[in-house]
Amino acid sequence: MSNTINASQVGAQDLEMRNSPVSEEMDEESEVLKQEVPGEPVCYFNDESYSNGNYVCSGNALLRCDYGIWIRTGSCDPDNL
Questions:
Q1: What is the pLDDT of residue 45?
Q2: Distance from C-alpha of 53 to C-alpha of 46, rounded to nearest angstrom
Q3: How far is residue 48 CA from its own chain's centroid?
Q4: Alpha carbon distance 3, 34 (integer Å)
């Protein structure tokens, strides 16, 4: 059985574009960030919006949209999953 996740490769964040904050999965900072963007229905990455629960790959980082915050959930490198 395969546990593959469909995630678009989006590259690095362009700081000139709209981007949602990125946090580690078990980071205390994520709770603070959630208060800054309470319940946003989408996350932004380089001006593109992604629905809650969607995944993207930024370099080797696997990010999941969690109500307006990108949560780093693992690796996109198939050799290091």
A1: 97
A2: 18
A3: 12
A4: 28
**Cβ atoms within 10 Å of 48's Cβ, excluding its own:** 14
* Number of neighbours of residue 10 by Cβ within 10 angstroms: 15
The string of DSSP letters for 48-59 reads EEEETT-EEEET
Of the pLDDT bands very low, low, confident and very high (cuts 50, 70, 90), residue 1 is: very low
46, 14 contact by CB (below 8 A) = yes
Residue type, 39: G
4-50 pLDDT, tens digit per residue, is: 678 989 999 999 999 999 987 666 666 666 666 667 789 999 999 99
66, HSE (Cβ side, Cα atoms, 13 Å): 19
